[in-house]
Amino acid sequence: MADALRERTAQLLTDYLEYCARGPGTPARSPSTREAAVLRSVAAVVRQRHERFLSDYRGYGGNRVELVAQLEREILAHPQALSWGRVVALVTFAGTLLERPPSGACSNLGPDPELELELGEWEASVRQDCRRLVDFLCGRLTGQHRAWLEAHGGWDGFCLFFTPALLSWKRLLVQALLSCFTAVILIYFWKRLPFIG
């Protein structure tokens, strides 16, 4: 039987990590799901706030999966320490590792710049690591952290958590106004109909 949470998690991670791994000047595909749009939006804020730290990891040429695994062990070690913010931080970091550094810049944390991979090798390495990171993160989130994810509403809970309350109120207000408008129209037409009887 299919595991809906795992499939949805894999789709979300694939969407975000491929978004990060795209080449310079390559237009981004539209987010594949609502949670993918929310993740991109929240991750952009995280990246902006922590630009200085994350910029050192762009173009990382080492073992990306091992580095993400180390970070995952540190920030998601205990279930009580788990939060949507930490999940976003981990996924954002993984995405940063797949980004190409700006032209002319080299990562301080990768291998010796003289041994830099050829462009084709770099892209192949990023594609392979993108798949490996999706598998690793999906396994951890829907394995070890599954109970937490389910207790917090899964990816629908993620969207609700990061959707500002104002948007929820606007949505409710619009629904209420449309309901009132519909009721007024129905009453108006009901009063105009001739009674048969």
From TrEMBL:
Molecular-function annotations in GO: BH domain binding
Listed cofactors: Ca(2+)
Predominant localisation class: cytoplasm
Residues annotated as domain Bcl-2 Bcl-2 homology region 1-3: 39-155
Pfam families in the record: Bcl-2
Entry's transmembrane regions: 172-190
Compartments reported by the entry: Cytoplasm, Cytoskeleton, Spindle; Endoplasmic reticulum; Mitochondrion; Nucleus membrane
GO annotation (BP), single: release of cytochrome c from mitochondria
GO CC terms: endoplasmic reticulum; mitochondrial outer membrane; nuclear membrane; spindle
Keywords linked to the UniProt accession: Apoptosis, Cytoplasm, Cytoskeleton, Endoplasmic reticulum, Membrane, Mitochondrion, Nucleus, Transmembrane, Transmembrane helix, Ubl conjugation
Role according to the record: Promotes cell survival by suppressing apoptosis induced by BAX but not BAK. Increases binding of AHCYL1/IRBIT to ITPR1. Reduces ITPR1-mediated calcium release from the endoplasmic reticulum cooperatively with AHCYL1/IRBIT under normal cellular conditions. Under apoptotic stress conditions, dissociates from ITPR1 and is displaced from mitochondria-associated endoplasmic reticulum membranes, leading to increased Ca(2+) transfer to mitochondria which promotes apoptosis.
Family according to the record: Belongs to the Bcl-2 family.
Identification of the protein by name: Bcl-2-like protein 10
Natural source organism: Mustela putorius furo
